[in-house]
Amino acid sequence: MTAASANSTRIGKRFAELRADGELGLIPYITAGDPTLDATLQFVLALAEAGADVIELGVPFSDPLADGPTIQRASERALKSGTTLAGVLELVRQIRKASQVPLVLFSYYNPILQMGLEKFATGAANAGADGVLATDLTPEESEEYRGILHTHGLDTVFLAAPTSSDDRLKIISAASSGFVYLISRTGVTGAKDSLSDELPALLRRVHQFTELPVAVGFGISLPGHVSVLGGLADAAVVGSALVSEIEKATSVDMAVAALRERVRALKEAARYGLSKREATR
């Protein structure tokens, strides 16, 4: 699947709409099954209603590499509740009965490999997923994976990092469809008070190698972070800050309300950040 043909997916269509409107996208991440899959269904619908443009559903995994403590704890809770990859695919099917929000499955590669590439791709596509980000799968080793997923109409999102060389950015861009996920800093996931001063230059460098939208994640937690990204990136990914709201809530209803409020504020910041830039040009 090329960048040009990616507009046929829900992800591609949504980013095309955002670009046409000059609007920064907002991509919330939550861990599926935290605290239960039924609760996650309510969370996803609340996020979509509050303005999420794309939603990342994390598949819980027992041995995470890039996840910080907040998302590690969410994975532990989800696994304790019995969440499996098959259960997450069924969750996607349930979401599709009520919402057409673009969905990206955010997983480590082992659960996908254990299920089998063809079975996974068929199940994900039939359930209504739109893309997959296998965090620990390198582009160089992904040819079979990409071929099978693209055959089933699924976007393949890959990670770029501040440490990625120009040659590697070319490889990542060529392997990606839907969007490129740019890690804003080195280290693991987690909310931070400020973004790296090097981020604007890093974004300019990434944009040299791809026409795909570039979404920035890791450390994005505050409306001010989102406003800063307006005009620089195509979307902001917010994960740990939302997972923390779920962890703090004493009921599912309280978590739904907190997520809705948080995403509304973040999406408003996305719109305000862009309009402010336009006004100063």
Gist of the model:
The protein is an alpha/beta fold and 281 residues long.
Write the layout of secondary structure elements.
Layout: H1 10-21, E1 25-31, H2 37-50, E2 55-58, H3 69-80, H4 85-96, E3 103-107, H5 109-115, H6 117-127, E4 131-134, H7 143-151, E5 155-156, E6 159-160, H8 166-175, E7 180-183, H9 199-207, E8 214-217, H10 223-229, E9 235-238, H11 240-248, H12 252-280
Parallel strand pairs: 1-2, 1-9, 2-3, 3-4, 4-5, 6-7, 7-8, 8-9
Attribute tags:
9-stranded parallel sheet; globular; disordered C terminus; disordered N terminus; 12 helices; TIM Barrel; 281 residues; alpha/beta
Give a description of the structure.
This protein has 281 residues and is α/β, with parallel strands linked by helices. It has a single domain, classed as Aldolase class I (TIM Barrel), CATH 3.20.20.70. Helix content is 50%, strand content 13%. The protein contains 12 helices and 9 strands. It has a 9-stranded parallel beta sheet. Strand 8, helix 10 and strand 9 form a beta-alpha-beta unit. Helix 2 packs parallel to helix 12 and helix 4 runs parallel beside helix 6. It is globular and about 45 Å long. The chain starts with 9 loop residues before the first helix and ends with a helix.
